[in-house]
Automatic annotation (TrEMBL):
CDD domains: SRPBCC_4. Gene3D superfamilies: 3.30.530.20. The lineage of its organism: Bacteria, Bacillati, Actinomycetota, Actinomycetes, Micrococcales. It comes from Microcella humidisoli. This is SRPBCC domain-containing protein. SUPFAM superfamilies: Bet v1-like (SSF55961). Pfam families: Polyketide_cyc2.
Length: 155
């Protein structure tokens, strides 16, 4: 993680915020981010992601924050502004058990440079049971994916 990245944690909530500046136009960063078929080639965190990229659509996402842990879940896209913003909401069980609001936002800095903001708010009664994973492993995986995305776009 970079110095601007942060993790805040309270009893039933963890908020992860990461970012990276990428020496490519925002449109190129967005194109790489939504080219989910290519994820196995470069993304060591989100190993697969399938589903129509449309508001309200359910996705099938396989994450592997560490070499020894992984999970497949089915979040729903709750915000979408093509070229700029994608937010999904994933849940374990019913609302309030473990909810994750995952956000990708691409902000142009200038014509040839952009910033990826990659964050998530996790909340629910299972947060204490998974606190170490949520506050250490997951933020490191976000930062790793950010770096991998920047390298992918620069290639």
């Amino acid at each position: 993680m970079t110095p601007a990245d942060s993790v805040t944690s309270s009893a039933l909530r963890v908020e992860i915020t990461t970012s990276i500046e990428i020496d490519r136009p925002a449109a190129e960063v967005w194109a790489a981010l939504v080219d989910r078929d290519a994820y196995p080639q470069w993304n060591t965190f989100i190993r697969s992601w399938q589903g129509a990229l449309a508001l309200g659509e359910r996705q099938t996402v396989r994450i592997e924050p560490t070499d020894s842990s992984g999970q497949t879940f089915r979040p729903r896209i709750v915000e979408l502004e093509p070229g700029r913003l994608l937010v999904w909401l994933g849940r374990v069980g019913v609302p309030g058990v473990l909810d994750g609001r995952h956000r990708f936002e691409i902000v142009p800095i200038d014509a040839n440079r952009s910033r990826l903001l990659h964050s998530e708010v996790l909340s629910g009664v299972l947060v204490p049971a998974f606190r170490r994973m949520l506050t250490v492993d997951t933020p490191a995986a976000f930062a790793r994916m950010n770096t991998e995305l920047a390298a992918r776009v620069a290639a």
